[in-house]
Prior knowledge:
The protein is α+β, with helices and mostly antiparallel strands. Helix content is 35%, strand content 24%. The protein is built from 4 helices and 6 strands. The chain has helices at 4-11, 51-60, 87-99, 104-116, and strands at 17-22, 25-30, 33-38, 44-48, 65-66, 77-81. Strands 1-2-3-4-6-5 form a 6-stranded antiparallel β-sheet, with helices on one face. The protein starts with a helix and ends in an 8-residue tail after the last helix.
Amino acid sequence: MSSVDDVRQVASSLPRAYEVVVRDRIKFRVGRLVFVGFSRDETLMGFGFPKEERAALVESDPQKFLMPSKGDLRYNWVVARLDRLDVDEMREFVLDAWQMCVPKKVAADYFGSASRHGETSSPG
Length: 124
């Protein structure tokens, strides 16, 4: 089970990422792009995810994953129930979402540095 604090620990360690609160919702951004956001009650985590793959993800485990709201369907976005994500799975989704927002060189530098320190390898 993951928590907002678990996500914060991962997201805040990423280059160019920062936390904001918009209309009582915690979000993590790179520039103006949101890569992770929470529902007001912090039970749902939305995150960047390829549109063409999200239906398959939701169908794979509808108890864990949800389609985004009607207003967010146009974005590369999907939603997960935070209490159903284990920490490793959450970390992979957060890293993938962040990677969609940063220049390729920034991601390559991060994953190269992290793997040299034994932290992680490129997700996916």
